[in-house]
Amino acid sequence: MANYYQKELETMPRQELEEMQLQKLKQQVRHVYQNVPYYRAKMEEKGVSPDDIQSLSDIAKLPFLTKNDLREAYPYGLLGAPLSQCVRIQSTSGTTGKRVVAFYTQHDIDLWEDCCARALVAAGCTSEDVVQVCYGYGLFTGGAGMHGGAHRVGALTLPMSSGNTERQLQFMQDLSSTMICCTPSYAEYLIESMKEQGITPQDTTLKAGIFGAEPWTEEMRHEIEESLHINAYDIYGLTEISGPGVAFECQAKSGMHICEDHFLVEVIDPDTGEVKPKGEPGEIVFTCLDKEAFPLLRYRTRDIAVIKYEPCSCGRTHVRMSKPMGRSDDMLIIRGVNVFPSQIEAVLLTEGYCANYQIVVDRVNHTDTLDVYVELPPERFSDTIKNLSALENALASAIRTMLGIGAKVHLVAPKTIARSEGKAVRVIDKRKLH
Amino acid sequence: MAITQLSVFAENKPGSLVSITQILAEEGVDIRALSLADTSDYGILRLIVSDTEKAQNALSNAGLALHLSPVIGVAMSDRPGALSEVLTTLEENRINIEYMYAFISRLAEDAYVILRTEHTEEAEMILKENGAKLLTEQDIETHLG
């Protein structure tokens, strides 16, 4: 039995859906051309005008947007609506070096929350449910998105935000949460804490969970499902495009349906930018078809995935994307926060260290760890441990300020980290997430 | 008056101390006294050597992080209570000690303690006023060995 939040849109026949997409695309390109000078300049550079968009495949004529564009245009350069019509700002998790701020009109919030509501309903949510949202609330889209989605469904929403595991577990039991939304690693941490406190799945009324904001594996799904006696669903999204709910799993648990009535998906070769043949893995590119305030066209996500075009057993006609299989850049997701090695490098240089470093990411007790190994500049060495600890602490604190997450800094002897010979191995990711 | 201590940054991994002592051996530098302060990641090897400049050049050529700092060497008779008297004197004058380590000479009857404080000159003055016998660079180079 399939559940839909917006049945007509979610199960719209393909032909009808594509006609709607084309209508919206034409309108959106015109809207952006007229209202976003930054993108208009890019279009003019490519010699393309809104009139060139006559079919969905014509989208390939449009220029791409990348995170770099968002930095260049920060903060208002890609705004597609007057600020007076905007009602919300959200921002990517934690980072300051490559900060992305996204703007929303009420219409944009509505469609985003609709997408989250679709994800919740697909996972079995009704107005009878109690939804415990333990994503962070604030600039991060995780909390706000799932919170808004749960409201739309009419579920009783528990805005727990992240952390305070004791209270999470107490409310989960006392207030009979039936659904939980958090990162998969936090779910594993909750499971661990439950075991420690002797809380069994029978002590809870959980039936399903929606887990996202970081990559996770099928093995983790089985572990979470068996430990909590729930169904575990994946959800995908990014602040640039709206937030969680850009794509979500249905009860078939076989790929995430992209909300194609709002987001047009393409798969490209990350090296050439050419559109890949159907069904081949490549970089996922999204075009916002009807967002007003932050209407990104052909935004390169850097996530590598495969799109499935076959009809799904759930009846939804929207295509499904696989879990991201990797990145076409060097971005890491650590405790749900986007981290670029270049940000750490920038901190090292600012703090007077050489750019020779190694980053080791691991997962210990279901929590991501970040260790930064950096060479001690000989002139900063002195004879006390106190002094060396102070250097490490100052650097760790600068990294925390930059990334928004903590790192353990290790000073190593000068000239002991391999010099870059072509491609230096700067990052060792010991987690097995793909 | 103070003597010079050579500190070497040593990572906590097999062979890092050996490589330091090997270099000193090759240079014919004698280690008069040493102490190792360590954390889980690294240690600081603090050395008083017969020829600081020679040791410094050789270790620095090997790419090691080094630091020279003034320390105070106090000679005292090798009997119970001698160290306590020295420390009491410093404590009474509010001189804070960062760290210290001791060694004994095989030629003299004395015991020695190396003291590191942020106020080297002041501490030296106070110790001398109170009759303590302080080591000189020359002592280190010659008869202590």
Q: Please provide the count of β strands of chain B.
A: 7
In helices, the fraction of residues of chain B equals 25-40%
CATH architecture of the largest domain in chain A: 3-Layer(aba) Sandwich
Low-confidence stretches of chain B: none
Q: Write down the Rg of chain B.
A: 16 Å
Instruction: Predict the CATH topology of the largest domain in chain A.
Output: Rossmann fold
Given the helix and strand composition of chain B, which structural class is it?
alpha+beta
Question: Which topology of the largest domain in chain B does CATH recognise?
Answer: Alpha-Beta Plaits
Q: Trace the largest sheet of chain A across and list its strands.
A: 4-3-5-6-7-8-9-14-13
CATH homologous superfamily heading of the largest domain in chain B = ACT domain
Strand content of chain A: 15-25%
Main sheet properties of chain A? 9 strands, mixed
The first-to-last residue Cα distance of chain A is: 30 Å
The end-to-end distance of chain B, rounded to whole angstroms, is: 19 Å
The structure class of chain A reads alpha/beta
CATH level-1 class of the largest domain in chain A: Alpha Beta
Task: Give the topology, please.
The complex is a heterodimer of chains A (434) and B (145).
Chain A: H1 7-10, H2 14-35, H3 37-46, H4 67-72, E1 86-91, E2 101-105, H5 106-122, E3 130-133, H6 141-153, E4 156-159, H7 165-174, E5 179-182, H8 184-197, E6 208-212, H9 218-228, E7 231-238, E8 243-249, E9 256-258, E10 263-268, E11 282-288, E12 299-305, E13 307-308, E14 320-321, E15 326-327, E16 332-334, E17 337-339, H10 341-350, E18 357-364, E19 367-375, H11 385-403, E20 408-412, E21 427-429
Parallel strand pairs in A: 3-4, 3-5, 5-6, 6-7, 18-21, 19-20
Antiparallel strand pairs in A: 1-2, 7-8, 8-9, 9-14, 10-11, 11-12, 12-15, 13-14, 16-17, 18-19
Chain B: E1 3-11, H1 16-27, E2 31-38, E3 42-49, H2 52-61, E4 66-77, H3 82-92, E5 97-104, E6 110-117, H4 120-129, E7 133-134, H5 137-141
Antiparallel strand pairs in B: 1-3, 1-4, 2-3, 4-6, 4-7, 5-6
Helix pairs in contact in B: 1-2
